[in-house]
């Protein structure tokens, strides 16, 4: 069962990853700009979900000019690897479905934050409610390995901790990071307080080390804005894997 589960998770991740470039192209804009509604050559983006779903290809462009945005193969490979890794660690537990649903959104948020230093509310806010509701459903199923109550408390604790960091240093921590921390806290809290601590600390350490490295190599200054969301997500992913393995 486990090898088949890993293969199915990887296939799902690859398919979901192929859909990342289109919303990435639409969302990767500065805060004062509206979401993109047309391809680089001005053709309106149409399709399912008001043009948000589908491959990053424009039917109105000429052959050879239809593709836009980032390479879909890279997004597909990355998403597939993450989904396969989570499936290997979690196994056939109900919460695996929740993690797999969150992975493409995490990849999308990472790419948007790296592109424009922004974590859009249109992604971060629904993720909080969705993660909480889905884990609540998972807790009712047999063989789940976590606690829904602790997951909710974990979201409040990690979100509150990041809010304090934001209030202390608004220039070093964006409010989008605070909203993202709510979802990551819910996910990490599911497996335990130690998992929450490890996942949160890993994200902070990774981000801090990268910032120090950029300053030391003079590729950034002390006041240079840096995308912190990707490190938060990476740390949380590591925490989930450790938590799932420990629960097994």
Automatic annotation (TrEMBL):
Domain Prepilin type IV endopeptidase peptidase positions: 101-206
InterPro entries in the record: Peptidase_A24A_bac, Prepilin_IV_endopep_pep, Prepilin_peptidase/N-MTase
Membrane-spanning intervals of the chain: 73-90, 97-116, 122-141, 153-175, 195-216, 228-247
The keyword Nucleotide-binding appears for this protein: no
Tree of life domain: Bacteria
Coiled-coil zones: none
Pfam families: Peptidase_A24 (PF01478)
Keywords: Membrane, Transmembrane, Transmembrane helix
Statement: the UniProt record of this protein carries the keyword Repeat: no
Family according to the record: Belongs to the peptidase A24 family.
Protein name per the record: Prepilin peptidase
Source organism of this protein record: Streptomyces javensis
Taxonomy of the source species: Bacteria, Bacillati, Actinomycetota, Actinomycetes, Kitasatosporales
């Amino acid at each position: 069962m486990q090898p088949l589960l890993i293969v199915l998770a990887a296939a799902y991740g690859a398919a979901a990853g192929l859909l990342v470039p289109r919303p990435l192209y639409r969302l990767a804009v500065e805060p004062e700009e509206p979401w993109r509604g047309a391809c680089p050559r001005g053709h309106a983006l149409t399709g399912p979900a008001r043009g948000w779903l589908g491959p990053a290809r424009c039917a109105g462009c000429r052959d050879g000019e239809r593709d836009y945005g980032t390479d879909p193969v890279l997004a597909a490979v990355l998403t597939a690897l993450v989904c396969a890794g989570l499936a290997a660690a979690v196994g056939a537990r109900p919460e695996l479905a929740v993690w797999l649903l969150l992975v493409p959104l995490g990849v999308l948020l990472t790419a948007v934050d790296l592109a424009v230093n922004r974590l859009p509310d249109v992604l971060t806010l629904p993720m909080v409610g969705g993660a909480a509701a889905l884990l609540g459903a998972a807790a009712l199923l047999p063989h789940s390995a976590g606690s829904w109550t602790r997951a909710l408390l974990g979201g409040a604790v990690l979100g509150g901790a990041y809010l304090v960091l934001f209030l202390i240093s608004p220039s070093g921590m964006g409010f989008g990071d605070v909203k993202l921390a709510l979802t990551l806290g819910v996910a990490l809290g599911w497996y335990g307080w130690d998992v929450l601590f490890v996942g949160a600390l890993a994200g902070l350490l990774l981000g801090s080390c990268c910032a120090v490295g950029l300053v030391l190599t003079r590729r950034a200054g002390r006041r240079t804005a840096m995308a912190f969301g990707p490190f938060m997500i990476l740390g949380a992913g590591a925490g989930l894997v450790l938590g799932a393995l420990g629960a097994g």
